[in-house]
Amino acid sequence: MPISFPCGECGKRLKAPDELAGKRRPCPNCGHPVLVPEAEANSAGYLLQDESPQSPPQGALTQSCSSANESERGRVWASREEAPAVTTTRPVGPTMLPPLTMNEPPLWLRHLHWLLVLALLPLAFSLLNKSDEEDFHERFRKTMETAPEDVQLRILHVLQKANDEAADDENGGVSREDLFAALPEHKLIGALVPYGSFAHWGFAAGSAVLFMAFFLLLASHKTANPLHLLGMGLFTATIGILLLLLLQTIANWTQGIWLRGGSIVVVIFYIVKLIGFSYQAALDPDNGFFLSFVGYTLGVGFCEELCKALPLLWYYHNNNPSSRRWRTAFLWGLASGAGFGIAEGIMYSSRYYNGISGADTYVVRFISCVALHALWTGSVAITLHQKQSLLHAVDSWYEYIPRLYLIVGVPMVLHGLYDTLLKKDMNAVALGVAVLSFLFLAFQISRWHSEDDEEAHRAMLREYKRRRAAMS
Asked: Is the entire prediction scored with pTM above 0.85?
């Protein structure tokens, strides 16, 4: 083991092999003769080493000459072997702990939902310019005028045949299939796709990809599983829509029928009958603003928001997700509402748009209307997360009804008011309701962010106090 010792003249620490103990050798740094101490007296030198191994300072070399070559005094002490390092365990100090942080989401993620406003721009352009649109009859007349003479004769023949059938049978008349089959390219002038086209399925797929990508960005802080988001959208786009259509069919069937009794079946019958009456009040063109608003709110608004919230209601009823974050419920609601909006766009396109409407109608339906449904269901999801205890504090099934109205209340009213204003051609005010729907959701998100910040601040203070107690 090499002997470590300092030079008495210049103070440099030197090293020498054991065989040089008791002999004098010149210091490689200053040249002064230095006595190499005995190995037994050198044990304290190792204890004086630094706590961590370091390279020997420049000039701290030891002599490696053999006894046969001892007369060569000018030879450099060549051994660079380091002494064994003595390591010690240092106490953990404040600088070695991770920094205190609130672990809040990044700023861009906290405000990313504002991009939904961009999805409302096509709706704004459409509603503010809707008064300039031509009706069906005017566009049909222009289509007839621009069609070749043989096509005009074919269309006239279809119309004449329909009139003859109507004279013989009060249910007769021209069918939409026969009419569009006679038109040039099977569509009105200015229509984007022909009647009977399946192009709207491609628009639906594009809308689904666009919104799913946006939801994945919102979930980039690992607040929601992408498969759960996809499942929510698919459930509402299929089972949710089918349940809504079934409810509408049963509600329409109950009109004109009256039951007596006080059983559960009779109570459910009249609840469904009220829904059917609400739908009729909403769709009747002769009803005023108030009856239309009541119909759209208690019928269309309530039933659609309830069907979109079904997967969320099922989850919160059968689980106690107190530890799950509100942002997860919010993303689930967005996905469910978007799935409903896309499915609704597919149905409206096949019934009312193909062969008739231009490209702007499809953009509004598959972008703006999908975003609106997502906004309303996102608000329902946040309210449901906040009031989830309501679903567990019930003793009978009929106690769910007022609680459901409380959970979907605000989006239901906004939904009904929006549809009523469109029915009454109050387009600018309807656009204001759409913007108000977004602002209500933004208010809910902002309030929950504030609560998250307060809780994170309290957690940081607790961690700070814990560290101070550990260091004292």
From this structure: no
pLDDT value, residue 102:
53
Q: What is the pLDDT of residues 432-441, one digit of tens each?
A: 999 999 999 9
Residue-wise burial string across 369-387, b where 16 or more C-beta atoms lie within 10 A, e elsewhere: bbbbbbbbbbbbbbbbbee
CB atoms within 10 A of CB 74: 5
Tokens of 401: 């009804």
The CA distance from 254 to 247, in Å, is: 11
| Closest CA relative to residue 101, chosen from 470, 456, 471 | 456
The reported pLDDT for the residue numbered 461 is: 81
Query: In angstroms, rounded to a whole number, what is the distance separating the alpha carbons of residues 20 and 9?
Result: 19
What separation, in Å, do the N-terminal and C-terminal C-alpha atoms of the chain show?
A: 42
Q: Tokens representing 213?
A: 């990508």
Collapse the DSSP code of 268 into the 3-class scheme (helix H, G, I; strand E, B; otherwise coil) and give the result.
Answer: helix
**Phi then psi for 5, rounded to 5 degrees?**
-160, 155
d(CA 404, CA 383): 11
Closest alpha carbon to 347 in 191, 237, 208: 237
Q: Residue 214: which residues within 8 A CB-CB, separation 6 or more?
A: 115
Residue 58, helix vs strand vs coil: coil
Decide if pLDDT at 295 tops 60. yes
Reply yes or no on whether the pLDDT at 166 is more than 70: no
At 103 the pLDDT is 59
In this prediction, residue 67 has a pLDDT band, given cuts at 50, 70 and 90, of very low
pLDDT-derived band at 40, boundaries 50, 70, 90: very low
By C-alpha distance, which of 322, 113, 349 is closest to 211? Answer: 113
> By the 8 A CB rule, do 35 and 23 touch?
yes
Contact partners, residue 341, CB within 8 Å, separation at least 6: 369, 370, 371, 372, 373, 374
Alpha helices by DSSP H, 237-368: 241-253, 264-283, 289-295, 302-318, 326-348, 359-363
Q: 172: pLDDT confidence band, cut at 50, 70 and 90?
A: low
Name the pLDDT band for 151 (thresholds 50, 70, 90): confident
Phi, psi of 6 (to 5 degrees): -90, 155
199-224 per-position pLDDT tens digit: 999 999 999 999 999 999 998 877 88
Burial class (CB in 10 A: 0-12, 13-18, 19+), 312: buried
**Helix intervals (H) in 17-134:** 43-47, 107-110, 116-119, 121-128
